[in-house]
Amino acid sequence: MPGSTGFWRDPALPHVESRRACRSRACYKPHSHPTFSIGAVDEGGSIFTGSKDGKVALGNGSLVLVPAGCVHACNPLPDTVWSYQMLHLDAQWLQTHAPALDGDTATVLHCPLRYAQFCAMHALLFSTAGASEKNAALLAFLGACASARADLLPSERKSVPLQLAPVLATLRAHPSASLRQLAQAAGLSPYQLIRVFRAATGMTPHAYQLNAHVNRARSRLQAGTALAQLAHELGFADQSHFQRVFKAHTGITPGRYR
Questions:
Q1: From 58, 67, 199, 246, which residue has the greatest number of CB atoms within 10 Å?
Q2: Is 193 exposed, middle or buried (0-12, 13-18, 19+ CB in 10 A)?
Q3: Are 44 and 80 in contact (CB under 8 A)?
Q4: Cα(70)–Cα(31) distance, rounded to whole angstroms?
């Protein structure tokens, strides 16, 4: 069905969430997730940004491993549609069960065997199989990905500049802090902060705040929070503003996601 999207969640497996999109034209702004994400392209071409190689062309069978917090975007080629599958894993669960995949750098795999394994595992998640069987297939796939990733990437973790530590602390305590407040926390001018912050995170402070709001909204939407209430709590001007920002980051409206 053109333009269709399907979501999968299971209370018995709270550490994983999945989606399938068929013949989508959705485009995404640069963003990050609090989860470790794995994407697979089933049909069509797209451009991925966020890996050590800059912009990377993806095609049928491409896999992308995106660590939690890694700024990235993946969009179809101009005037085309694409189909893809997306898996989101709780970051703490991943550190316990597949620590070799943890890191800061996105990885692109062009491996037919890994793609076939992903598709089989993903189809199992959407099936009526038991939770233990699904979890076993997930762990087996992650182990295979860890081996493939180890051949491509170094294990060093990139650190955030010390001068941004008070800025990130301010954002955790006050998610809607103004640019002036953030600049004062770092001892920089607003222009200097934007330049340093973007170099370190891949986003401006404002884009970082919007992305954080969207990530918080995901869990609140799953809990059934009303859209108007959520928009107010997250500091959006109104519900329409919240919906536009959420869709720009996720490719779907908050009501549909919920």
A1: 246
A2: buried
A3: yes
A4: 8
pLDDT tens digits, residue range 15-44?
999 999 898 888 888 899 999 999 999 999
Sign of CA dihedral 67, 71, 77, 83: positive
Q: What is the pLDDT of residues 107-161, one digit of tens each?
A: 888 888 899 999 999 999 999 999 999 999 999 999 888 877 765 544 444 556 7
How many angstroms from the chain centroid is the CA of residue 173? 22
pTM over 0.90: no
- The CA distance from 256 to 204, in Å, is 28
Rounded to the nearest 5 degrees, what angle is found at the Cα of 118, between the Cα atoms of 214 and 67? 40
Q: How far is CA 188 from the centre of its chain?
A: 30
